[in-house]
Amino acid sequence: MKIMAVDYGDARTGLAVCDRTEFLASPIGVIQERVLERVLQQVAFAVEEYEIGEVIIGYPLNMNGSRGPRAQLCEQFAQELAKLVSVPVKLWDERSTTVSAAGYLNETDTRGKKRKEVIDAVAATVILESYLSYRKNHPEQ
Fold first, then answer.
1. Helical (H) or strand (E) element with 114
2. CB-side exposure of 55: number of CA atoms within 13 Å?
């Protein structure tokens, strides 16, 4: 099944998808938009365009597991997206994914404007890789 991960942000929202075998996660782009309704429409379009079977929304819990304002925004985003698409929409703990994404970009010496343009898509890829790893190790769920 093809799965899409979404790293929802105030100004940029990163997207990543995996192949049908759930082996390879790849960034597919960044939505540069601040208006929630427009972001939702573009994500819903991507779900249809890429023939996605499930959507994972990064869920930025606090380090102690509590829900802060950002996590609540992601909950709202997931609820609204679920109304627009016909596939399951799930929240997935994304603590430290932006730090991991920054680490990858440091390793590839991606700096400046280019870094800002891709970090959200890389973060979505990290979220998706985490989810795929979980699915692989918990096939009963």
1. helix 112-137
2. 29
Q: Could you give the CA distance from residue 72 to residue 57 in angstroms, rounded to a whole number?
A: 12
Confirm if 77 and 57 have CB atoms less than 8 A apart: yes
Tens digit of each residue's pLDDT (9 = 90 or more) over 92-134? 998 766 556 566 556 655 555 555 566 678 889 989 998 998 9
- Say if CB 24 and CB 18 are below 8 A apart: yes
Query: Contact at 8 Å (CB) between 61 and 95?
Result: yes
Per the confidence metrics, is the pTM higher than 0.85?
yes
Closest CA to 124 of 11, 42, 18: 18
How distant, in Å, are the alpha carbons of 45, 104, 118 from that of 115?
Answer: 25, 11, 5
CA–CA distance, 105 with 46 (Å, rounded to integer): 25
Q: Are 45 and 133 in contact (CB under 8 A)?
A: no
Instruction: Report the distance separating Cα 91 and Cα 120, nearest Å.
Output: 17
Taking a C-beta distance cutoff of 8 angstroms, is the pair 59, 97 a contact? Answer: no
